[in-house]
Structure formats: C-alpha cells, structure tokens
Amino acid sequence: MLQGMRIEFVKMQGLGNDFFVFDAPVGAPGAQLGEATLRALADRHTGVGFDQALMVEAPRDAASAAFYRIFNADGGEVEQCGNGARCVAALLHARSPGLGREFTLGSPGGTIRARIREGALVSVEIGAPDFTPQSLPMIAAQADSYRLNVAGTAVEFGAVSVGNPHVVLDVADVASAPVATLGAALGSHAQFPRHTNVGFMQIVDRQRLLLRVFERGVGETRACGTGACAAVAVGRRRGDLDADVEVELPGGTARVSWEGPGQSLWLTGPASIVFTGSVEVQ
Question: Are 103 and 92 in contact (CB under 8 A)?
C-alpha cells in the first residue's frame, strides 16, 4: 500500500470521464493505494474527485511504453478503461514526444495500441470483442441476446467483453432511461459474479447512437470508452450499425470503428490534462 507519502498526480479527462493519474513509486512493484484511500480521494466534495484512478508503472515487456492499472472510485481494481487508456497515452506523449505518434501500452485487460492524432484526439485499439458468457463472466449459455428478471421486470440485453464486462440494453429514449436504478440492479445481478457495466443505447441511424453507461464501482459517468465500444459491437453484430459509428455520450462524442468478427475495435476521442497537483496519503 502506498500510505504515508506525498503523491504527485495529474487530473485528466476524456469526454468528461475523469481520472486521477499517478506514477507508481520506483522500487515498489505491485504497490497501490488502499481502497479506503482511493474512495476518499475520489470524493468530489472532500477529495480530488474522479471516476477512476490510473497508476502508471514501468513497462512489463520490451515492446510497451508503460503498464497502467485501473481503480474505480469505490477502490476496486478493474481490467480495462478505454478513456483511461487514451488519457495515459496522451500524458506519455506529452512527457516524451520521442515516443512517436504510435506506441503500445500494457494493461490488466491486455495490450493496447495507441495513436496520437491531431486536435488533441487519441485513438486506442481495444482488441476484438468477446461475446462468450465466460469472458464477462456471466452464468448463462451463449446466445445472441439474453433475458433476466431484474426487480420484477424482464430485461433483454446483449453481452460482451471488451477487456472488461458490459451488457447493453436498447432503449427508445436514452434521456429517460432508468440508468441509476436498473443499471445498479442489473450490474450487480447474481448472473454476473464479478458484476458488470451496463449501457443504455438508443440507435439513431446506422452511423450514430446515443449512450449512457452505469459503470460498476462508480455509477453513471459522463462517458465510458469501453462502453461505447461494447454498444457498437452489440449493435453491429446483429446488423444494425455500420463499421464506423459516432457515439454520443453525456460528455461528448466518441468514434468507434469495428470491421467485424476477428478484428479489433478502435476508440477515438479527445483527452486532456485538467490540472496537476500533489496529495498526502495516510
């Protein structure tokens, strides 16, 4: 645990999805902030305030520029974060332009390829979506769609892992979708032993959709990069979307590209530094 020390950090955001980004101390492999400390720092009234904390470590293989770990606002560690990956890539490029405009990052959810684009845009290769229930994991036989009884209501959804678990529901009007209540209930359903993120998707046309996401361990966020990828994967798999889709989230618009089965998802959007600071952790 990283306790009793001062941590330098960078507050970053991608489409309003905000992050507390800090470097792992040299010589402390595997160290992290404790869950109680992370929860205190994540508080938007008495702490720094963030959706996720991103700890940047030395690379674990010769091909990567760095390795990063992701911790939700509740202190729990998770596998992947699309907007977080884009922010880490933007920060590393700002620190070391010599990395070039394309490089690789390591993460618990797998290897990520990053591209620095013009206009503060960053793209990351999320990898190929996995529609098998065990990839989430979800206790179910594999199907194109699933139905569960949640708080007395039958809910139909698609399910996919994009480095972390997601279920995606179609809604007629994303603005009035019961994101807080149904998102919490479905995300913590017993069918998902490690819980899941829940996306509420309104398809406008084949190249545009509206999305809100209830993230496990956080609640609804202004944007969710892997959630955007999951929504496009689910919609495109059943033939409703084209290969390039604009995903409109409360915090702004991301672009997701997926050529189809066996191909990687690409997520593109802005990433920026909000401020830098330091904090004493006890």
Answer: yes
* CA distance linking residue 160 with residue 68, whole number of Å: 23
Residues 104 and 198 in one domain: no
DSSP 25: P
Does residue 92 share a domain with residue 154?
Answer: no
Asked if 21 and 52 count as a contact pair (C-beta separation under 8 A), the reply is no
Which of 136, 168, 186, 224 does the annotation list as catalytic?
A: 224
CATH code for the domain in which residue 168 is found: 3.10.310.10
8: which 2 tokens? 């330098």
Active site residue 81: yes
CA distance 96 to 76: 30
pLDDT tens-digit map of 259-280: 999 999 999 999 999 999 999 9
Pair 94, 236: CB distance under 8 Å: no
Largest CA distance in the chain: 56
Q: Which two tokens stand for residue 231?
A: 């929504």
Q: Determine whether 87 is an active site residue.
A: no
Express each pLDDT in 138-181 by its tens digit: 999 999 999 999 988 899 999 999 999 999 999 999 999 999 99
The catalytic residue among 81, 136, 228, 232 is 81
Q: Is 190 left (phi over 0), alpha (psi -120 to 50) or beta?
A: alpha
Number of domains in the chain: 2
* Domain range enclosing 203: 133-263
Asked if 249 and 223 count as a contact pair (C-beta separation under 8 A), the reply is yes
Mean pLDDT of 203-216: 98
Q: Is residue 19 within 8 Å of 87, Cβ to Cβ?
A: yes
Q: Residues 140, 22: one domain?
A: no
- pTM for the structure as a whole: 0.94
